[in-house]
Amino acid sequence: MEMRMCWSKGVKMLFVLCLAVAVFLPFRIVSAGHLEDIMAKGTIRIGTTGDYIPMSYLNPETGKYEGIDAELSVLIADSLGVKIEYVPTSWPTLASDMLAGKFDIALCGISRNYARAKTMAMSDAYGEGIFGKTILCRKSDEKKYKSLADIDKPNVRVMINPGGTNEKFAHAHLKHARLMVHQENADIPRQIAEGNADIMITETVEAARYTEKDARLAAPLIHEPFTRHSCGILMQKGDQEFLNYINDIGVIR
Q1: What is the value of pTM for the model shown?
Q2: CA distance 100 to 85
Q3: What does each C-alpha distance from 129 to 26, 35, 132, 168 come to in angstroms?
Q4: Domains within the chain, CATH numbers bracketed
């Protein structure tokens, strides 16, 4: 009887062990294979919108990507000993393109939030305390806007790019202002400067860069952003070894 009970416990333990191996082994194989595949191909595919100064911007004059995330992309590729293949994406299609496997990682000033974390993996945060929602307006109008209440009025035209957190913020907090969707994020500052809209909802780092480039623009609330958040590198779930690698190489600390 005692031998039968011991044998039964042994079978149960063996079953649990086999189940654990069956559950976790595939993920280890997939993640290891992903890194190996990148190095075997000699290329890492990086998704980027190319419209976010100073994070990742496709300079139309040089045809090259510039910015903080462009430099970070080079560091990651160099650490793996591979070349970069940039894959254009957009804010409305960023998540679907990532889930479809069109690129290995995405870098373009991507905010870390729960909506993305539900379906995709994100690296450890970088830029904590730097990023936040603010506004860009004409220099001549900067004294008009001291709060969200000053912006949320029927006669204020707020221009936003579709699909990202700027659009979500505008819809969540601006119930009376006139919201105008413009497809090209990098073109919105010019639209503001030329009087085709009054306000751009943007990030602190982006607003700072555009006020440096164009004396007609101002960011009166840049030191008092409406939100605070950080950015992360986006990738598919289920690739823990790859995620660990990105976090451990030290370039995003």
Answers
A1: 0.75
A2: 17
A3: 38, 31, 8, 20
A4: 10-128+230-248 (3.40.190.10), 133-227 (3.40.190.10)
